[in-house]
Description:
The chain has 8 helices and 7 strands; from the N terminus they run E-H-E-H-E-H-E-H-E-H-E-H-H-H-E. By secondary structure, the protein is an alpha/beta fold.
Amino acid sequence: MDLFDLTGKVAVITGASSGLGADAARAYAAQGADVALLARRKEKLDNIVKEIESTGRKAIAVQCDVSNEENVKQAVEKVLSHYGKIDILLNNAGVAFAGSVENMTVEQWDTAMNVNVKGVFLMSKYIVPHMKEHKYGKIVNVASVNAIIADKPEPLVRHAYNASKSAVVGLTIGMATSLAQYGITVNAVGPGLFKSEMTEDTLFKEESFLKMYNALCPASRPGNKGELNGPILFLSSDASSYTTGQFITVDGGMTRV
Length: 257
Ligand SMILES: NC(=O)c1ccc[n+]([C@@H]2O[C@H](COP(=O)([O-])OP(=O)(O)OC[C@H]3O[C@@H](n4cnc5c(N)ncnc54)[C@H](OP(=O)(O)O)[C@@H]3O)[C@@H](O)[C@H]2O)c1
C-alpha cells in the first residue's frame, strides 16, 4: 500500500498561479490527484492546467479571490459540479508586505488579514461541510516560519504578515480539534525562505538578509524548488491519518537554533 498515493482524490489548491502553490498542484497531480487550481490570474492558471493535462492528469482553473465570500462560494460550487467531491484543500494563497505597526497603512494590514486569514476561513467554511458529509478531508494551511519568528533588519519587518501567519496556525489548531471526529485532518506547514514571486525581488535581492538567513539556517541555504512538496503530500495523504493540528516548519532547521 502506497500511503502517499492520491489516485482518485480531488485537491483544491489556492494561490496556484505561481510559486509554491503551482509546484504543489504539479506534485498532487503527479501523485494521482485530480486538481482544481484557484487564484485571481486566470491566464497563469490556464497555462499550469495545460502543463498538468499534458502529463495525462485532470486539472481545472477557477478564477477566485479568496478574500471575497461570493467568489469563494462560486469557486467551490464550480469544483464540486466539475469533480463531484473535494478530498484535499491546500490553503496556500498569501500576500506579504514590508511594514511595522508604525509605518504600514490600515489598508495593508486589512489586505494581509483578508487574504492570509479570512481566505483560509472562507475556503474552509465552504468546503468543510462537504468533507464532513463524506467523513473524509485533508486540509493543509500554508503558514510561514514568520508565524513564530520575525524578520530583520528593519526594512524587512512584516508585522501584518507575522500576525496573519500566527492566526493561520491558531485556526489550524482550532479546526483540527473540532474536525478530527469527522475524519478530517487539519495541519499547517511553515516554509522558511523559498524563491517565488513573493520573495525574488525582495528578500532574495537583499544581500544582508540572505547572508543572515544562510548564517542562521543550519542547512545554510534557502529551500529549493519542490522541497515543500514532501511535507504537503504527507499532510494531504493517508500517510498522515493520525496527524492533526500540527505545524511543521520546512526551513532547514532555521527555527530550531
Ligand atoms: N516563498 C517563501 O519564502 C514563503 C515563505 C513562507 C511562507 N510562504 C507562503 O507560501 C504561500 C505561497 O507564496 P509564494 O511564495 O508561492 O508566493 P507567490 O508566488 O507570490 O504566490 C502567492 C499566490 O497567492 C495568490 N493570491 C494572492 N492573493 C490572492 C487572493 N486575494 N485570492 C486568491 N489568490 C491570491 C497569487 O495568485 P494571484 O495573484 O493570481 O491571485 C499567487 O498564486 C503564501 O501563503 C506565502 O505566505 C512563502
